[in-house]
């Protein structure tokens, strides 16, 4: 089994570079999917209340036989639960649903600037971290202006900013913004739903190495140095997505990958997204 590298967050805690994402995992068998992912060697589970699978996350954790202290658990506060009281209720409910005493990381899912509650929510997350409800705190889908407002008004930067990154949306500017503020970047939808699988920079490396296109893209993420969250309900593919440590992209191949960036989002624009 491969040893997954860790990235050090600004609070001094370790974040596994590779985690298992639970977004859009097929309903009905989530607990078994989680169980197999943990048994396959994923050290991090990334869930959210909005995904409606926090209970299955906990069930899969307990069924896996993997000790709780060896699993990094992330969840998120949804848009309609921002604000001090609502955010606290959200975190307390997540703890009950997952069946753990402390989260490893809790994120604000989206900034939703139109409701102007993300700073208040962040202040409550700081309080809940200090109380021990969650060990680390961060955000998801925050832009530079959102991050800078959090820091200016509370004096504290998020440990993590989880954003969409894949070959056709590489976000070098936001990765740099995060790094400049000591924030770890974590990529969601790292495979971009397969839209780049047949692109020559990906297909050529797959042909040279004998690896799948998915493995090539995940290795690209690994070499860029940020954290990322592949997901699959297929046990074989779960294991394949971890089998990326026996090959490398050359400098020329990494450079060729940059040509695929066309700014194509598969998800919403954080500047305007406000779904409740």
From TrEMBL:
Binding of substrate, residues: 109
Protein name, as recorded: 2,5-diketo-D-gluconate reductase A
Boundaries of every NADP-dependent oxidoreductase domain copy: 18-260
Catalytic reaction equation(s): hydroxyacetone + NADP(+) = methylglyoxal + NADPH + H(+)
Source organism (scientific name): Paracoccus seriniphilus
Transmembrane segments: none
Domain of life: Bacteria
Gene3D superfamilies assigned to the protein according to its UniProt record, in alphabetical order: NADP-dependent oxidoreductase domain
Family: Belongs to the aldo/keto reductase family.
Oxidoreductase is among the record's keywords: yes
Active site per the UniProt annotation: 51 (proton donor)
Site (Lowers pKa of active site Tyr): 76
Keywords of the record: NADP, Oxidoreductase
PROSITE patterns assigned: ALDOKETO_REDUCTASE_3
GO molecular function: oxidoreductase activity, acting on the CH-OH group of donors, NAD or NADP as acceptor
Keyword flag Lyase: no
